[in-house]
């Protein structure tokens, strides 16, 4: 395996703080590395040092001869006077790059096709693009070039669920097996598991390496913290809880490593489910009553005149107490508008929005501009201004305890709100909303600017919150972790329930794209162009007939009755497996008692083998049913 680049005893310090202290590591041919760590711990610095974009204070960085390295930074160096075409493919003639399948795939996946409708066309000036559009152009410019090593710093920012799925597939297939090198910094845990085979954790000036993706990293950290000092107890509990989710939830069925499964089972054997759904629903019913939010024959339009488009058409939807719902859709499909409609900030063009008399709603917005009003207060003062303590689950939690739970150190709680970073502002505003004790909570892209440790803490906090939860996010790990049900806006004016979760949504979107006629002479448009920018809506930018989207949204999905039956069967099998495991333990104990009786031990061993075979068969059946139910 060829060595591509190496750092030896690299040290980087800012003022009195050492971000990287005598770090030595490297990237070999075939490496796929995910980089995780708390905000500010040096992940981006590490990537810049690897790329030789930042000189270390000490140590050496070496690249192999002729290495072609490309890096996506959080900012971009695009020329604002250039057009999109030149920014992405340079001076290469159109007939040359348009004939390249790899280039076409990148343009379709990120910009909407060879006419790039997601950024206003290939002739659009870079200087007039939004931040999200510039990000897509910068990523497309990087991926259209045949780099030996690609370093990506938060590549999933400004990408929706569908875009993240495309990027993961592209990076998996970009190089032949055993070739190329990838290192990616991201807070998107599903994406980490989808693309990485090793994990680097940057913390306290060092970089720890773990085999496997995010799921394996969580297991390794949980095992490490299990034997750590008592001061690490709180972090260990959070990690064990997240590991329990990985074992039970959808990520376990798609990307959780099968190795060391006995160790994982032993570690989480006594760990309860992430949340008691029945108990939370009862608490929410007591606080909310039976009626929460209802849409009755609602039609919702945005824009006016020729630019008007219909987001919802004659939709009836009832949301009950304690429901936890994730909302997915392409950028511009109306997810945020739907939440604002439910919460009473917008009025429908037709129909009725009914809210329960006891509903107290709160919404975490993407910009968190609400904090501008308390910018002069310190963090703890801003929280205590709302309330000093709040009841989560069956415990009273003080403002200080919640601040600590969400990653604010004792020093940081006395920082003025106006000096906080983007991720800290998001955490603080979520905290203020929770302290207001709403019983309906809407979260619009809550994962922006948050690292993986903070996301785990946020999820842990939401597990004990008993109200009705609505979440819009491109982070499918978070959606599947904190919500129990997902719905989709597919651009046809209807809401589509997703019994199969996010994976079913992606299948529906692919079917929807396949149903569209080709656009122009070179390529069909993607979801990104159809739903963004100009506000013309799904279908009109693509030039597809109005019937195309409804036909796609009617694509067959898992039958709801079959899914319920399969889930019941899963529960039955889990009970059987538990009984067999208990029987195995009893036989082991009996074998220990009769260790001197050779015949008895042989008979018990035969029983043990039979039980083990039966348990293994049930586990295989469980995995098949789990995949079928999504």
Q: Low-confidence parts, pLDDT < 50 over ≥5 residues? A: 251-256, 280-284, 519-557
Separation, N- and C-terminal Cα atoms: 37 Å
Structural class: alpha/beta
Number of helices: 23
Strand order, main sheet: write it out.
Answer: 5-6-7-3-8-9
Number of strands: 20
Biggest β-sheet: count, sense, barrel?
6 strands, mixed
Can you tell me the CATH architecture of the largest domain?
3-Layer(aba) Sandwich
- Rounded radius of gyration (Å): 26 Å
Q: Helicity range of the residues?
A: 40-55%
CATH class (first level) name of the largest domain: Alpha Beta
The domain count comes to 6
What's the mean pLDDT score? 79
Q: What is the fold-level CATH name, i.e. the topology of the largest domain? A: Rossmann fold
Shape: globular
Strand content: 15-25%
Query: Please, what is the CATH homologous superfamily of the largest domain?
Result: P-loop containing nucleotide triphosphate hydrolases
